[in-house]
Amino acid sequence: MQLKRLILTAVFGFACLAGFAQSKSNFVPQKDLLATIRKNITDADAQYKLMATLLKPNEFPKAYHPKESRMETSNSGWWCSGFYPGTLLQIYQQNHDQALLTEAERILAVLAKEQYNTHTHDLGFMMYCSFGNANAIAPKPEYKQVLINSAKSLATRFSPVTGTIRSWDSKPADYLVIIDNMMNLELLFWATKVTGDSSYYKIAVTHANNTIKNHYRPDYSSYHVVNYDAQTGAVKERKTAQGFANESAWARGQAWGLYGFTMTYRETKDKRYLDQAKGIAKFILNNPKLPADKVPYWDYNAPDKPTPLRDASAAAITASALLELCRYVDKTEGQTYFSAAQTIIANLSSPTYKSAPGSNGGFLLQHSLGHLPAGTEIDVPLTYADYYFVEAMARYKAFAKK
């Protein structure tokens, strides 16, 4: 019965990658914002063509440092490598510019070898955001096999002792799991749907259940990192490595959780995940530290002085998640989520956050923040901010009546 349910959700899962093209709802998008989104997609097309000219053949964009006019890149093994082809493909879905598809296919060939990478938990980001989008646009046996192999590689990092997927490799006694890992479960759900092998599904829900149990505080804010005892499964430590303090609420971590549990509800229809997503949404949207434009400071507990930096990436992820979550709740609650996402998209589209054409190395958004405590990627454009912004805009457009 469970597998039948999964099969029935398969089409909806692909619709999520494609921007909810077949969904219906009671929420009415603003005509002016739809026009702005059309302009944003046109600008994104030009920006990503510019970005392509700045990359060497085997390079993937990470960030751009405007003060130094410097592109920061990675190889295919970096956790963000899937976002560049994924964004190209999402823009292509909106405007059908063949040049973007050609560039996406070129870089997918560079990325393909990571399907066998068992040293990272980020294969969902790397492979599902890239090959998953490609397969949704034009299904091919080779794309399907890459994704299945990627799911197999990700599954090797699961421990029955901790009931979680290992995030960061560390000394043998430690078993580190980060909230970001919720995002990688979508690849596992997909793998069960297409192979019929329920082991991927079981790994995903076991990981999600233990994330609820061990990562979350009573107010639905999340720790970034939980360190389990690798031998016993007991929790040894909870901390927030990329946030202000161990007990603080790192903004992007809250967004990862919101998106991850919303997606997990979609794939399972288990109410506990919907309740978790709603609790996280309440924490974010009712937070007294959330600015009026709903683009959060990098940490909800960051000191007020000096004025903390914003994180556009957290806002983009949140907007995209809310535009899915609003479909699973009653109309009143859904309107709250829809309106909040609408506000975020409108503000990210303003010159405050959106790059001027021809600037920022081709990135679409400004003012994201990677890892402030480590002093890296501070107040710069980031590849995943663009990916989830484009996804959020596609999801918003799908609410328009055909």
Notes on the structure:
By secondary structure, the protein is mainly alpha-helical. The chain has a single domain, classed as Glycosyltransferase. Helix content is 51%, strand content 10%. It is built from 13 helices and 9 strands. The strands form 4 sheets. Strands 5-6-7 form a 3-stranded antiparallel beta sheet, with no helix packed on it. The protein has a two-stranded antiparallel sheet with strand order 1-2. Strand 1 (60-65) and strand 2 form a beta hairpin. The longest helix has 23 residues, at 31-53. The protein is globular and about 55 Å long. Residues 1-15 and 18-24 have low confidence and may be disordered.
Please name the CATH topology. Answer: Glycosyltransferase
Number of strands: 9
Low-confidence stretches: 1-15, 18-24
**Shape category:** globular
Count of the separate structural domains: 1
Q: Tell me the number of helical segments per DSSP (H or I, 4 or more residues long).
A: 13
